Amino acid sequence: MIRALQTAFAAAALTGFSLYIWREGYIYTDLAILALVPLALVIWAGCWPLALQPCRARLRIVLRNESPLGRVLTGRLRAFVLSGIFTFVAVTLLAWQAWTVSLTEVLVLSAAFFLSAVLFSVGQNVLSAHFHQPFANSIATSVVTWLVAVPFTLIIAWTTWAWAKMPGEMLNANIYGAVLSGVSELPDRGGWIAAILSVPSGYEAAKLWAVVQLRDYPIIGTLFSLDAALFAFVLCRSAIVIAQFIEKHIAKAKV
Amino acid sequence: MSELPSSTVKQPDSAKMSPGAESKRHLGRWFWGAIIVMALISFALSLASVMRNPAASLERTQQGSSDPEDEISAAELKARLNGANQTALAVIKARIPIVLDEAYRPVYAAIPTYATYHYSVWGQYAELTAAALGDVEVKLQDTLFTDLGSRLDQAGIELDASFNEAFRASLEEGADTPTQMGGAVGKLTRAAINDTLERMAVTAPVGTAAAIGTGVAVKAAASAMAKKIAVKLAIKTAAKTGGKWAAAATAASGGAVLCSWSGPGAGLCAAAGGVGAWIVADYGIVKIDEYWNRTEFEADLRAMVDEQKNEHRIALESALEARAFAVQELSAEIAQNHDFTLRELSGGSNAEVCAIAEDLNAQYVPMLNSMSARTPEAIEELRAAADAYRGNLSLDRLVAELTENLKSANLVAITKVQVFGNLPADYRANRDVTIQVLIDGKRYEVARVESSETGGFSVALHPEAEIAIEGSVGYGVAIEQHLRLRNRYFGGTGSMVLKGAFSDDSGLLEILPIDLPISLYDKAGDLDEVTVAPSEGETLTLEMQFNAEPLVALKNAPNCR
Fold first, then answer.
1. Mutation test of the interface with chain A: which of B42, B72, B350, choosing the one with the most A Cβ atoms within 10 A?
2. In this prediction, does ipTM exceed 0.95?
3. Of A193, A245, B1, B295, which residue is least crowded by CB atoms under 10 Å?
4. Can you spell out the DSSP letters for B295-344?
């Protein structure tokens, strides 16, 4: 258990410092993105075995040993693509959330992150007693993600619905004005980072505009909150991936 | 959990390590090293953030990121703006007497100067001449009220500035709101507050209201005071003219004897003596008058100035309250465009909100131009229905507007009373009568009119008395019949419940005829002493004309598709 807590602490420290430097530094310079590099590398490196090893295990069962396809179908390409996509999406969303998040949300998201890392660390040990590797890791990843992300999605959805402040200008804005309003939260200096972040910002603003326009249907507001809370899945999966990296590459092997 | 430092690892063991363990050790160093470096950078950034100078802080605010924790919701913002508004109103109301004292100080200081002028022979003749020409107020205006108008305008401007300052200070302190956030607010809240401060500078300024009212009001005050002075002057002149003629005649006749030596010029000499005696007598009378009456005259002037100052105080307070109301409207408008939560947004669907607004409007519209629709029950029901939606993001402004409009919905004014009829048969005569009408405890007197034995009398007056629609109105008539020896007094009183008194098609004007029995009241020596309420006897007819102001159509309905 101590080991699980240490793993979670290390994962939280890496993610927290990385995102904090990004958030504070991006106000002044685009170079703040360098703070996300360690986080991206760790997520990529953590994601890689999770994507590769189950695939290889399946290939070992599916492919004959003497098949020349064995040299091509190594699972590396698939793992590379999946890891790359997840890393890009996760880092982008984490960076965007870090830019816009409130203190209350930080507390909720930190709890989800820490809990995911701890449960994964504990869960994979427990599941290792019942399942072969690498499936124990895959199952632990999946189970813990759902176990933590679902309740936290509801919690985040509730806080978004009840407490998150939406800009009042949305009440009278048209779709174009709403998107501009969302994008205007980014620094005026522009740049390629702002161009990337303007996608989630504009998307969120457009969604909010739709919610305002469809006030007739309160369910739309609820769905908007739930949609915003789906980030919890990315966060939990990121915590698990980072914890997996630490378990595999940083922590001492069990004696 | 972390790798042990290399210095603590024995060389032989290290040499036996597998390549995987070695790379793991290196990776661990990099990992923890990166975390330590990032922790140091984070610490440095935090320090920089705390020690950041105001300019950099402003730059950050302008550049984008705002902490949503510092933002307040639309409801909180509205509460905060309204709190500041009320605080500013209270502060400035307390300042009104001070600025008025300052503006009126030269007026009070000039009273002795005017009294000196008034109690001089020259002043008396000048005032009499001015009274004959109808411009007594010119001297009064020049002596007492010079620059009062501009001083009052300045006072209005000063009150505006103080109001703005008090409003701003209250907002910055945040001490009057439930949020208690102090001065630290987020970018959006700051923008809303700044927007309010900028726009309120041109919202119904007291200075403008005062500038429109003061010039006219000062002239009116001078005119009213001049009329009172002219009346006193006329009474005084009539009283002392006889004495002066006597003195002049005596001097002229005595002068004729004394001037007899001058032969043909004796007449002229006697006339000069008469004029001199007139002036000396005049001087003496003025000085005696001053000795006995100057203090009272100055006190009268002060009382009139006090009255005028009080009217200005009321006008300024009204202008300030109008301004506070306009600022409240502005705050509601700004707050509606401020932040909201999805919970507030979904307080009701648009269809539901529109249905509620339509329902409120449907209850309100019949009252716009109909007194009969403004029953106490209907007004109270509408007020309660509106109150239920107070604080609703979409309906709050409509509720505020309805509540404000309904304040005057329950008032009607009695704009005209026509009294006609005759005295009891035993007392009818072709003699004048003076009639006093009592409305809701207040007496209105009509000038003496003719009354005939056969036709009686008919008089009309315009009391402009405001009555609450849910109450009843007390009325009465007191009549003085002017006889040669001793006047006779008659009277009668009654009351009428207004609820249900107006017919459906009356609109905003209704004339209600009332039969009022009167009888002789021989205990009275004056009209004010007539208190009698006979249930039978000669009956007069009172036609009371009730008027109500039209209500303003609602403007703040939510946007309904």
1. B42
2. no
3. B295
4. HHHHHHHHHHHHHHHHHHHHHHHHHHHHHHHHHHHHHHHHHHTS-B-HHH
